[in-house]
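Chain X:
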Amino acid sequence: MSKHPNVVFILSDQHRAQALGYAGNPDVQTPHFDALKEESLSLTTAVSCIPVCTPMRACLLTGQYPLTHGIFLNDIYLRPAAVSMAEAFAEGGYDTAYIGKWHIDGHGRSGYIPPERRQGFDFWRTLECTHSYNDSKYYADDEKEPRKWEGYDAEAQTECAIEYIRGRDDSKPFMLVLAWGPPHAPYSGAPEKFSSMYDPSAITLRPNVPKDAQEAARADIAGYYAHTSALDEYIKRLLDHLEEQGIADNTIFVYTSDHGDMLGSQGNVKKQQPWDESILVPFLIRYPELLGRHGREEPAPMNTPDIMPTLLELAGLPIPETVEGNSYADFFLGKTACPADAALIQCISPFGQWSAKYGGKEYRGIRTDRYTYARDLGGPWLLYDNRKDPYQQRNLCDDPKSSAIKTQLDEMLSGMLAERHDKFLDGSTYVKMWDYPVGENGTVPWEW
């Protein structure tokens, strides 16, 4: 085995775990994701610990939980207090690269991000945030004037990643993050080749989409699936290139997303919420040299802060002391049991489409391989047996027959909150504590 493998980490935006062919979805066409799953370890309970863009990305890049790094709203600057994922890999002799959506700079969504705010990444083809997928800009390295991606940005970014890999220095391993904007809304805008694949009237809805949300959900989902099928093609291009370069076996290849999308389920839209459509994300990891090419599926829960330490240990690198997540490397290798029985889920200060105005609320909860349990500020709120009720249509919180499992899950949650020093205060308290200037929508104002 080579000492240090390459790492290709693909992060899409708002791709829920249920929107893949291999997950049993009857409509979405994802043959290349499905083929990758057959060569990968697939986690069916991969959780976004705080299912919204900026906070999740901060958890990913630090291996920390939100109340440690302080990012629990969108458009906040992640201060370099922790050792970042890029810094840890660079310290281990890696070249580091970031291509695509960043969204942890907090200085406006379209401005130049100087090197000292890049969390240790060297090669740089990035914009803070845009969802104008066919009119998308980015900054290259130290250039202070933006360039423009040609055509659909996810395709152009994929080609940029391929060029980066092709031009690499063979004497050093590399760690590349490719962060796509789709399938996040707007749901229109995928190339015609993919949008023509889906007829809204033929979309199969999840049973938890209420009647009054169904028409809008079908229209949104058709576009969402078109974006997903586009990403499916780009996954194949990347994997083919790794094979052509002769480095596929010694490359850790990961596909995941920052959070899901309700898309009408429970009558709701977008993210931040504790239901599976929001918190569960795809997680495929292929590393032929250590894990083989035989597909394996695990229901064990894994959380966002666990990703950084897992990748570092698989790469043979030390895990910084600032990391709070668990390494799953030995579990992946079959050496130990899963290091956690549940993944913590949080909404610290609801905003935007999940603000109080739209029924949003603060919560803390856990997702095990079977159960979802959550408290709001008033006490126990949600309890689902996801094995018996996969669409989460029967809340068991007030069911006397479920009191024993509710007590068990509540004690587990209390232990996790104590470990994280989380007193579960109201969101405004945390906003004041961190001195964030929130606007009318409950988050920090931003400019394009």
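Chain Y:
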Amino acid sequence: MNWILKLLPEDKRALLELAIRITASLDTPEERKDVAEYGLEMLKDGKVTVGEWAKFGSRLGILRGPH
């Protein structure tokens, strides 16, 4: 995969690396597909509400409440 990343322009490579890190906590192809589909739907109108962003982060397992 690293050789593929090296073929991409630097800005696209950075975005793909970010996406990979964000989704690293997802265990199954189904989870990754679910998050990707939700994210694409969420961004469809070009705007994201706080609730949508929170739901997206929750699906990714990256949001935590106060400790």
